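Late entry, written up from scratch paper. The run itself happened at the end of the previous shift, but nothing got recorded in the book at the time, so transcribing now.
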Amino acid sequence: MEVGIQGVLGSFHDQAATTYFEGKELDLKPFHDFRSLAKAIHARELDYGVMAIENTIAGSILPNYALMNEYDLEVTGEVYIRIEMNLIGHAGVKPESLNQVYSHPMALLQCADFLAEYPRIKLTEFDDTADSVRLIKDEKMLQAGAIASKKAAELFGMEILAENIETNKLNYTRFLIMKSRMNGQTSVPKKASLRIMTKHEPGRLSDVLVVFKEHKINMTKIQSMPVVGQPYRYAFNIDVAWEDYQNYQSALKAIAQSAELIKIHGEYEKGVMP
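Output as recorded:
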């Protein structure tokens, strides 16, 4: 099974893919950026793609919502990964002997309290957490470290100098499992990702929310997104969950009275936060 991920092997996208598809033989295809990944999914060059969509600290990844819509990608599942950051370096090196640390800017930010204990270390932003480990290994940078996952340390044969150095221990990222719309649904859906554009009239968004309440639909997320080509018009990316699929279908029919557009990005099983 060919599964596309953003970033290199050993990244958190790698961890998300192997967790979601546990027990299946995977051929992971790394992509440098999310747009290239979305294009490959749309072109059916992959069986699935894994795309981060939100983080409990940083919030929504807005460009990825836009890519879902632009390339008409379908959500077929989700997985939550606890983000555990580790200081990684060459064997025998101590954190206090480092003069530079590389990682993705978000990873550096999420480890700010730990890094503040070593003010002499220069922090250098890099495109990918796992790739920063590859860099310090390949370049034999003995006085440099990287912040990444334990899997990255194992993959590149490097040593964990300090583990779980993230400031907030309840840091999770939600990843969506994406596919082209040519693949069929194979599981009983309990959750959906929707794109809704309401009529440009007072109270129309409120009407939508009331419908969800009346049909016992739990709205787990709402994110406004600008409508390209229509200044100051917004669509709403909404995630909903339910116990009765018929209630969900009835709610969609009722919402149609207040909406100009209802697009179902996908219906899928609910992921479980570890």
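The first strand starts at residue 2 and ends at 6.
(Scratch paper discarded after transcription.)
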